[in-house]
TrEMBL record:
Pfam families: DUF6597, HTH_18. It comes from the Bacteria. Residues 160-257 form the HTH araC/xylS-type domain. It comes from Winogradskyella echinorum. This is AraC family transcriptional regulator. Signal peptide: none annotated. InterPro entries: DUF6597 (IPR046532), HTH_AraC (IPR018060).
Length: 268
């Protein structure tokens, strides 16, 4: 398995990451838990053999796939040699690009052609032209997103402001505290955040906090017990409850198993 990232200079606040993921004959069959990272993605899978399993439902992954915000982990399976190239977006970017309700993608992998046909018609030729040329694909995608018109308004600007606050505080706040920064009612905040980002603010905060803790742990920055207190978990049982929700297994089972793929992208 090879996970490679490409330069995204000047692409913020739209594109967070450009990446290529390849599996050779020696890597398969491959299976890994995927912890969501609070972003949406569009990935082009150039061959058959990849799929995801979420709540016992398996979804084949081939061609241009839009992946929404997931609120819990899913399983990623590969049973053939394969190559894919993906775009990870800022939490509000896919809405700004498509003007669509991002909540329709939540906990789903959907063919881009079905979700956003206009965007598909623009992107698909780029991916096909550079099927075996990651360098050329990167260059063309950067040009595409730098020239792509996006829709911004007062609401998207406010949601961007709240996301910046959540990230700065590393998820250690609650929805009610967000109301201090905007002139929305709680109901309007919930509705607009879910439409633009894909999750409610409360779910986004909880996931972001857990993700930050996991990244610090995988990066071996600090002991797990200290991280649990640092991220305001009341006690170990509270942390275990969150862990089982997001990872679908206990911390004990997770930490005694190999998680090479998860470690790779969490340490990015």
């Amino acid at each position: 398995m090879t996970l490679k990232y490409y330069d995204t200079t000047n692409l913020n606040p739209i594109v967070e990451e450009l990446f290529q993921l390849t599996f050779s004959k020696e890597d398969i069959p491959f299976q890994s838990t995927v912890l969501p990272i609070c972003f949406t993605t569009i990935t082009n899978i150039y061959s058959k053999g990849q799929s995801s399993v979420y709540k016992k439902t398996e979804t084949p992954l081939i061609g241009l796939i839009a992946t929404g915000q997931f609120y819990e982990s899913y399983q990623f399976l590969v049973n053939q040699e394969s190559n894919s190239y993906g775009i990870t977006f800022h939490p509000t970017a896919l809405h700004k690009i498509t003007n669509l309700d991002i909540h329709k993608l939540t906990n789903k992998h959907v063919p881009l052609k079905a979700f956003a046909p206009k965007l598909y018609e623009l992107l698909n030729p780029i991916f096909l032209t550079h099927k075996d040329d990651a360098k050329g694909l990167t260059k063309s995608l950067k040009k595409f997103f730098l020239e792509l018109p996006i829709t911004t308004n007062k609401t998207t600007a406010l949601i961007d402001k709240l996301i910046a606050i959540i990230h700065k505080k590393e998820g250690m706040l609650n929805t009610y505290e967000l109301l201090d920064y905007i002139d929305f009612s709680q109901k309007t905040l919930e509705t607009q955040f879910k439409k633009i980002v894909g999750l409610t603010p409360g779910k986004y905060i909880r996931l972001h906090r857990f993700l930050k803790l996991m990244r610090k742990h995988e990066g071996k920055e600090i002991d797990l017990k200290d991280l649990i207190h640092m991220y305001n978990y009341y006690d170990h049982s509270h942390f275990v409850k969150d862990f089982k929700h997001f990872m679908k297994q206990s911390p004990k089972d997770y930490f005694k198993s190999e998680n090479a793929f998860l470690n790779e992208y969490l340490n990015k």
